Amino acid sequence: MTTPRESILLLTHLLLLPLTRSLLHPPPVHVPTLVPHVPTPLLRSRFSAHTQLDFTTHCNSSCFHRGEQEAQKELLTEKLAFETLYADGSRTLTTVDVEGDDEEFDGDHFAHPLLRTGPGVRHRHKRVRRQIYGADGRFNIQGDDFLLDYPFSTAVRISTGCTGVLVSQQHVLTAAHCVHDGKDYVKGARKLRVGFLIPPSINGTKAGLTSSKKPLVRWVRVKRTRVPKGWIQGPQEVSMDFDYALLELRWPHRRPFMRLSVAPSSDDLAGNRIHFSGFDSDRSGELVYRFCPVEEESSNLIYQHCDARPGASGSGVYGRVWDNSLERWERKVIGIFSGHQWLEIDGENRDYNVAVRITPLKFAQICYWVHGNRLDCVQD
């Protein structure tokens, strides 16, 4: 039985609910349609690159405002072309067209980034320690109840040393630099695999010893890998905008996966927070979870101070996003953790950990990679 106070609070909540939804929940985002052309065969990869887990870039005002040039439809269409690497080492290049109004297209790449500058900004001094900010805020995920529990169960290992996130029954989203250095595929991409954690107890370990045992990994071969042309042979500062890749497994898995979403403004994220779980290199064999507020954001990147170490690259960055069809907050992947960036803006050096935003165009591209049918790729 509810108390009079609880009844009043409940009634107030119900009366304000329609108003709250209209104020807090943004309208659905229009997603452009990606129209692929017939793939063109390329020379086989040499697999000569080395994996760079500690991915760090530098950006100044010039590169930060380069979005004014990148907003042109022709340039973006060129960057949304993609390479496909097959298990036998062969490659193809697929060029694309994008259907949609020019006005909608330009809205995908804001002419002026959203980085907050001016009197209201909290200016930060250059930090000495990269990737860990102050007290370490990461949590080790242990035990069957957590490792096999959603959303932690969506995190997988990549055999090159990175992390990925399950986004369908057969697809893993990760960072492009985990498989390609911008010029060639890394050596480990020749026989790329995805690792699923298996808790000790499920592997037959005695119950009394599970606390001291680390999870084992079941590896699955990758059937094909897709990387956007915007990452390949692009200037380093701009390439971070396209630091994502999709891996297709040889066999479907049976674990829950996390749905994708166009990244909303941080103001439209529940609590203004993002979350991700990854396999940080300083905690070998363990899944590490963290969350933090969004500090700054541009049209293509999410700047934050979530503690992370090499190995977390490729983690699926998710937040609670309002789902109009379900009329509730849902965890959805809105970005991919890339690495670290030094920003030199207005003569001040600031450092951030950075995630790549899933824009409407990137959503359309990744969705096509997953479904192979552009008609299925509309914003949920």
Number of strands: 19
Compute the number of helices: 8
Structural class assignment: alpha+beta
> How would you sum up the global shape?
globular
Subcellular location: Secreted
GO molecular function: serine-type endopeptidase activity
Keywords: Disulfide bond, Glycoprotein, Hydrolase, Protease, Secreted, Serine protease, Signal
Pfam families: Trypsin (PF00089)
What does this structure look like?
This protein is α+β, with helices and mostly antiparallel strands and 380 residues long. The protein has one domain: Thrombin, subunit H. Helices cover 17% and strands 32% of the residues. The protein is built from eight helices and 19 strands. The chain has helices spanning 4-24, 61-64, 67-70, 73-79, 102-108, 144-147, 236-239, 360-371, and strands spanning 33-36, 40-42, 56-60, 82-86, 91-94, 96-99, 139-141, 155-158, 163-166, 171-174, 193-198, 216-228, 245-249, 273-278, 287-297, 301-304, 316-323, 328-345, 348-357. Strands 3, 7, 14, 15, 16, 17, 18 and 19 form an eight-stranded mixed beta sheet that branches. A six-stranded antiparallel barrel has the order 8-9-10-13-12-11. Strands 1-6 form a two-stranded antiparallel ribbon. A hairpin with an 8-residue loop joins strand 14 and strand 15. The protein starts with a helix and ends in a 9-residue tail after the last helix. Mean pLDDT is 81; it is low at 1-23, 109-114, 116-129 and 205-210.
